[in-house]
Every structure is written in C-alpha cells, then in structure tokens.
Amino acid sequence: MKRPRGLLISSLAVIAVLAAACGTTSSSGGTPSKGGTLVIDNESGTLWACGFNPLNPNDASFAFGPVYEQLVYVNLLSGKQTPMLASSYKWSSDNKTLTFTIRSGVKWSDGQPFTADDVLYTFNLIKSNSALDLQSVWSVLSGVSKQGSDQVVMTFQSPSAPSFYYIAGQQPIVPQHIWSQIKDPVSENDAVPIGTGPFLVAQGGCTPQNIAYTRNPHYWQPGLPYLDKVNYPAFTDNDPANQYLATGQAQWGGQFIPNIDTYWVNKDKANRHYWFPPIQNVNLFMNLTVKPLDNKLVRQALAFGIDRGKVSKIGEYGYQPAGNQTGVVTPTFNDWYDSNQAAKYNYKFDPAKAQSLLQQAGLTKGSDGIFKDSSGKRLSFTVISISGYTDWTASLQVVADNLKQAGVEVKEQDFSHDDYFNKLFTGDFQLGYGSLSTSPGPNPFYELRNTLYSQTTAPLGQTASGDYGRFNDATTDKLIEQFTATTDSAEQHKIMKQIEGIVLEQVPVIPVTESVSWYQYDTKVFAGWPTKDDPYAAPAPWNIPDWEQVMLRVHKK
Amino acid sequence: MRYLIRRLEFFVVTLWAAVTLNFILPRLLPGGPEVALRTRFHGRINPATVKSLEVALGIHSDQNLLQQYVSYLGNMLRGDFGVSLGFYPQRVSYVIMLALPWTLGLVGTATVIAFVLGTLIGIFGAWRRGGVLDSLLPPVFVVISAFPYFWVGLLTILIFAVTLGWFPQAFGSSSEVTSEFSWPYISDVVYHSILPAFTIVLTSIGGWILTMRNNMITTLAEDYIKMARAKGLSTSRIMFQYAARNAILPNLVGFAMSLGFVISGALLVEIVFNYPGLGTFLLQAVNNEDFSLMQALFFLITFAVLLAVLAADVLTAWLDPRTRERA
Q1: CATH number, domain A280-516
Q2: Which chain A positions have a beta carbon within 8 Å of B284's beta carbon?
Q3: Inter-chain residue contact A463 with B43, CB threshold 8 Å
C-alpha cells in the first residue's frame, strides 16, 4: 500500500524548497473572473496539526507562500526573479552587501501596515533563536540594519551570491507587532496566522482533515487573488488521494499516480494534464573512504555499468527521466548543461568498457564473474535505501542487474527514513541510493555544491550536511568558492562548466535518475496553470513557496 | 470481594510493567530523538540549535536513565505526555485529541454493533440449529471475515461511493461543514461514517457469531436447560436467562479486549477511507521516531486494554456467581 514516491517525502520535509512567481497575469484575453474554490490533492501522510508558524519546519509548508511571503520570489525551475515584499534590491560591487528596498503600500492581513521594521525584526528574530533559522542564513550574514525609512541592508561575512536565494527567496517575513508579543516564538503554534500573503486561515478554518485558505481582503497585489478559497484536505495514504483526484473532486494534484494515463487522464482527456519537471538528482552515492571506491577508475566503471534509461523505465515507470553524469538536472537546467564535455565522456551503459576500466584499476575478474582486488576481496557492495520506497527498490534491482554484467555485486539494504539519513550523514555506508536531504535550488549550483563541497562534509562518524561520500578535491572547492563570490551570470556559467568537467572525470557521485515535481491539473473549471510552455512556477502543491504563485494565477475559466 | 481485589492487584502490577517496558523499548531502538532532530533539519543544524530544540521538546539527554525514568513515571501519572517531535510544537495530548474522538466514535460504535449483532445472530442461530438463519448467516459472515479488510473496503467504495454515489468515498466529514455541535455537522459525520462502519461490522461480525453459536450449542445441551424446559419456562427466559447468560461468559473477555484495542484505531479503515484516526498516528509515530507520541499511544492502548479486561472481570463476577464463591 505504500506509495513509491521518494521525492515527495523528502521535499515536504525540506519545507522551504523553492521560490514563487510573479503577480501579474499572463493569460490571454481580459481580466479573469473572480471566485471559485480550488481543491489541492496531495498525500502528506498525516492529519493537519493546524499550526502555521512559518519559522517552524513542520508548519512552514502550510504557511509559507499563501500566508507569509518572502522578499523576492525565485522560480525554482528557471531562477527567474519576481519582486515580492522587496520592490528592488542591489548588490554592492564587492558582493558583500545586499540592500533591499521594501515595498510600500503592503498591509498585514489584520490591516496593519507592513514596513522595513518587520523585515529587520524577522532577521533579528531568527538570529536570536537559531532554531528558527531554517535556512541557516546567519551562517553567511554578519549583520542586518535599516537604512532610511524603507531600506534593509544585509552585510555578509564573505561574498555569498547564491545565499540570495535563501535570504530573499526562502525566508518568510513575520509581523513585528504580533511576534514581538509572543513569549516563545520557537514553540509558537500560530493557529490564526497574520501574514501579507493572498490568503489567510481564519479562526476555525483549519480542522485535522482540511485547511481552508480564504481570500485576504488586504492583499497588496490589486485584483488578486482570483480564487475565493483553496481547500487542502489531508490525505494519509496515496490511494484515497488518487481516487479523489480521479473522481474530479480535486483539481490540483501533486501525486504519484501509477498508469496515470488510463487511471486519470483518459477519464477526461480534454481537461486533464500532467507535467513532471525534474528538479533534483537521485544518485548513487559512493563512500570514497571505502576501498576501492577511492579509485577514480572504479567509480568511472560503475558509471558505465548502469543503464540509466532502463532504471528510469522500469524503476520509475518512465515518469522520472534518466540522470546524466554532469550532475546538471536536464531539461530543467539545459542552459547550464555542457553537452560537449558530456559527449566527450559519453557515459552510456557499456559493461565491456566498465570491465576494462576495472582491469585498468588493477582488479581481476573472478570465476563467478565478479571482480576481485589483489587480496582476493570481491567487488561487492551494499547499497542503503529507505524502506517503503518501492520505486527505489525496483530501480536498485535494475542497477544490480546492470552492475553484475560489469562484474560488480550490489546488494540492497533498507532502513527507516531517519536511520538511512543518519547513515548517509555520518558516512556509515558503502553505496547509498537517493537524493541530497538539502533542498535543490533555482540552478544546478545548489545541488552540486552540497554534493561536492568538502566544507559541507565531516569526518566519518560525524554529521555532514552535504558531500556524504567524503569527496575532497581542492580544485572543486576553489571553483565552488569562485562561483559563490560572483553575481555575474556569464562567469557563473563558465565556472559551472568546469565543475561539470570534474564530475565527469572524477565521478564523485553517479546521478541515476532525476526526481520530478509531481503535478496534475484539471482545466475543466480553472485556467492559468503553470505548464511546460509557461513554467512560471515549480508546479506541485508541495513546491514551497512556488505554490503561492500558482494560487495567485489560477482562476475560473 | 477477594476476587475483585486480586484482579485489581493484577491490574496495577501489569500496568506498571507495561509502563516500564514502554519506557525502555523506545530507548532500545536505533537512533533517538537527537538523530531524528538532525535528520529533520537535513544535517544543517548546529549543536546549539539541537540543544535548544531538545530543551523545547523536553528531552533531557544530560539526565541519567534513572532520573529520566522517575520523571517519566511522574509525567505518565499526571497524563503529561510532552511535546510531539513529529508535530512539534504541538503537545502530544493535542495531537491525540485530533484523532481520538473519530477513533472512539467510529471503531467503538462499530465494535459494539458487531458484538451485539453477532451475539444475537449466534443465539438465535443456535436456538434453531439447522434452521434458515443458522444455515445462512454464520457461513456467509465467516467467509466474509476471511476476506482482507482493504479489499472489502475498496469494493464497498467502488460500489456505494464511486458507482452508485450514495456515500462519500473519503474523510470523516465534509470540508464545507463547520465542525460545531449542530445537526448539519453531526448528520454529516454520521453520513461519512456509514460506509467505514459498515465494512468494520461486516468483516468482524463473523467471529462473534461463530463463537457465540458454538458456546450456545454446548450450553443448550446442559442439564439445567432440560430442567428449565421441563419446568415449562418461557422460551425467551430459557434462551436469554439460562442459555445465553452462561454462553456469553467466554466471549466477554474477548469483547473487552477488542474494546480496549479500539483506541489503537483501525489502520486499514483509516487508510482505505482516508478517515482520521489514531492508527495513522501510531504508524507515523513509529516511522518518524516520534518517541513521545509513540510512548503516549502505547500507554493509552495498554491502559485501555487493561481497564477493559478489569471491567470484564467485574462483569463476569456479576454474571457468574461461581467466580465469586471460588475466590
């Protein structure tokens, strides 16, 4: 009964994954009509606890976006920026100071004016309560101050351009006049949240089974939102959620649906559509402290020994596309992808090539078809996975079959979610299948930094926030730091290509498939949805805070 | 009376043992709240934050096991279950209260209905052994009770909710009705509960019928029944006062146990009908390593089962004079 959806669970937990889109409508012809109740269909596995504290990791995914807003919306798929609570921003020439001009005319949903003081208050609040600093912004910031009446200046410990995404795009702003009265903001429940967003949750609007988001009459974007109400029912299992969607009771899905065409689309072909944009790699992590995985040739052999297309087709029903060895998620980040270098290495499934690489690495093939090192130890690894993620298990069976042809034995071992991540973090694994636990970002840098940067790792036995494989390469570190220090897009692209070259050559990690944003939409009643041709936001209802943009733009036909 | 005191002693000792086990077991699991916290923050958490969260969650990792045990016993006595890790910052008692009324309402009612109905069918079936009722109902229900629950549930949804559209297919109430003590809300809740309750009764009634019928048949062969007939007592008097009163005794403890287990929810019902309830929370607590919620739920289940068994003992003592005399 367990649904095969690795991505969703991790993404939900990740809370503030993404960014949101712009305010003006782009749909054709006239002003969309107002009104209507949109129903979200997303299996979260739990009943609602009805807390909306946007600074709490459990609650933020229900509050951040429609209720509490950020300074700038950054589209997770394209990196495109839309000013929200900040009307503009400016980097200093040394990229160490970031100045936001705070939007005027914005009101909190209780009618009080929103000011630069609220922004200042929020950042100071998460500084003094580190448990609320979900994006660890104070690991890069050194100070926040107000300048004039409407500017907020952030100073950085060192240049950190990619942190813009966390500071401007991922930090919900809370009202000072409410939160300064709260005794313990860490354990604040915030049952009736006061935010600047297009929707609010009224007293009694949330029950364990449903959250009703209703229109905020004070919303600052004129004429928005179009919708009167958005219902977010709580689904504890995938099957009822899929059925609810199939019977047309919900219009906006974030679901994994096996055989989606027959089960869902064909029941109303004209109106039911889906789009699954990839956002993050599902990798085979290798622990580089385990011999012979410290040998680049062995890692390259593994990369040649996996048929990614087949894994995608069999393990993921073809819904999650195959990954590629540059580490750049395509087609989402196509403009960062270096096709020339990728073609040069050409990591396609080639067991013969894999075997010759293993021989080059000094290993010999045993009588059972599995390679051995000089001491006679077989090339056999256990790969850790999360129990209940049936799609990963199916994928790993393909991987094991493939690698057996290359002369490598792989056995799967399942753990609970927490134990699995603890093993990854502390380096207590040989091979690991899965995605980074940190959120992906609006360009490939965010994922690759956390996959490769040795500053994010830790000695064996200690908790690493990234680089689970304990890859340690000075050139890579330097490139990552250079990328961090620049805001020039051309320069960033140049550096990214060098990083891709390293991933191709060193194979610190093997991207196998790409996890996607599961998204179904029903155009029978509502229009204005994000689509492949108009990707104005990451489309799943669990893409936080991108979902606010969808809730702003969707309207009755 | 001595009998009752003995049962009470047993109750207290078992409860203490269960509560102690409940303290030890989660601590034997791999991981622990600190590990769970770190994974919750994806490793991007500094030790100071872990510390401050632990304080907020009421985890005292600096206390030794004995100190923790003593404060744990105190908390359990006061009914203070602490803060839930998975639903932080909500308290465990709040989380449980989200689901408890639904579970008690649905599973409790359905269990009572199944028991009463099953017992009655068993009594009448045995009374007219080989009659129409006896040759039809028990076999049918026993066969149905062997079906997997989720299959029966999905089938009823398909027929009565999707195809016929008579009943809603999911949820405990409609999102358009405000939850207040009013007729529209209550009728809405009842309306939503009919299908899940129907399937619970359908799948659990077979067991009650079978055991009651068999007990009844044995009892009907007893000499005192013959004697009652010889005395010319009325049929209903013999059936209920003489036969059923004795035949039901072995079933009472079983019923009490199942009442106690009501509190653990009905996981499959909750999954199939997307019905709110404690079963889902229990599963989630285990998956999330939400120790405080797990402990509270296990405590409640143990307590409810023990209490129900105690109640059954009292009831047995009242129904069956022999237990009183023997003691």
Answers
A1: 3.10.105.10
A2: 45-46
A3: yes
